[in-house]
């Protein structure tokens, strides 16, 4: 598998990627305006909830969607927290992969540079999931096969593994929650040899999306336990989870409140870079950690694809700020 062009500085005038050393001392990208708008959003919601004594109980209940216990954050694993594509280019990792399902949890002997990048990613991922856990209920939904997530995390990301256990983050293997009928599978197999590669890829993508959708719906239903769905954020590198979240937002209808109004269901999805380098993944996690408070307090749906240049990232940041401002 060939490394994506953006990972090697080939273009004559590449867009400049935000590097880790451009962040503040605490390792976060402090994006101007976000904290103030989150505070303003909280204040406005509080004011709306106090419009009249008669509405106090109902409005206070409606405002609970911002509370951490009412938020759900669903994250992917491969190329979202774990640098699968980047590692797959390395012979040491490919050898480790042959034995990944065994009890082998020792990291291969990488170069010092690779070890340094993995250590930085481990710290960034730990910081991200810790921050996310303070804002909502975090769950990992992956298309990989059990026990891939646990084994790769234990072998390559010990700091993340520690935080994972501390926060009690659950892992859902989407393939275990989705059962395709034998009739559909037989039809696909019978016609697969006649299909163009593009058609076969579409079928694979659609199936991946359905697996993610089924697993995500189960996670959300479990989180809200029969109550109305309130505030969900999905973060992943692929189209599967991004499109799955869109499907869920189209299909799910919350019950009506006491006054007959439809209860709000706020859906947010961030699609990260596909097949990122380790350094890109570090930067993305730092950016997402800076964005998460604003995303969780946005009283609206929000779907965004993360770009790979400083200009793209700042444009997305401004879009988020505009949406927060527009909701006030």
From TrEMBL:
PANTHER family: DOMAIN OOKINETE PROTEIN, PUTATIVE-RELATED (PTHR38899), PROTEIN KINASE (PTHR38899:SF1). This is Uncharacterized protein.
């Amino acid at each position: 598998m060939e490394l994506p062009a953006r990972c090697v500085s080939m273009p004559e005038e590449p867009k400049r990627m935000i590097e880790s050393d451009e962040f503040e001392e605490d390792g976060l990208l402090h994006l101007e305006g976000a904290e103030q708008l989150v505070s303003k959003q909280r204040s406005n919601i509080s004011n709306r909830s106090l419009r009249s004594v008669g509405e106090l109980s109902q409005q206070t209940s409606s405002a609970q969607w911002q509370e951490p216990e009412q938020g759900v954050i669903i994250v992917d694993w491969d190329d979202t927290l774990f640098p699968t594509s980047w590692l797959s280019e390395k012979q040491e990792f490919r050898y480790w992969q042959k034995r990944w399902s065994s009890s082998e949890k020792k990291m291969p002997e990488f170069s010092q540079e690779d070890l340094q990048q993995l250590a930085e990613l481990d710290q960034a991922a730990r910081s991200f999931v810790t921050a996310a856990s303070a804002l909502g209920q975090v769950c990992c939904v992956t298309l990989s096969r059990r026990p891939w997530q646990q084994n790769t995390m234990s072998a390559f990301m010990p700091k993340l593994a520690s935080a994972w256990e501390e926060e009690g983050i659950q892992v859902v293997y989407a393939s275990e929650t989705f059962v395709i009928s034998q009739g559909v599978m037989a039809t696909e197999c019978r016609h697969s040899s006649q299909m163009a590669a593009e058609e076969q890829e579409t079928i694979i993508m659609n199936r991946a999306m359905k697996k993610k959708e089924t697993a995500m719906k189960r996670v959300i239903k479990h989180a809200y336990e029969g109550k109305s769905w309130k505030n969900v954020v999905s973060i992943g590198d692929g189209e599967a989870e991004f499109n799955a979240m869109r499907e869920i937002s189209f299909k799910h209808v919350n019950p009506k409140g006491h006054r007959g109004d439809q209860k709000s269901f706020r859906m947010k999805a961030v699609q990260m870079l596909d097949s990122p380098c380790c350094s890109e993944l570090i930067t993305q996690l730092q950016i997402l950690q800076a964005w998460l408070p604003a995303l969780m307090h946005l009283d609206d749906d929000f779907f965004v694809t993360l770009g790979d240049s400083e200009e793209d990232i700042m444009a997305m940041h401004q879009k988020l700020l505009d949406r927060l401002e527009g909701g006030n």
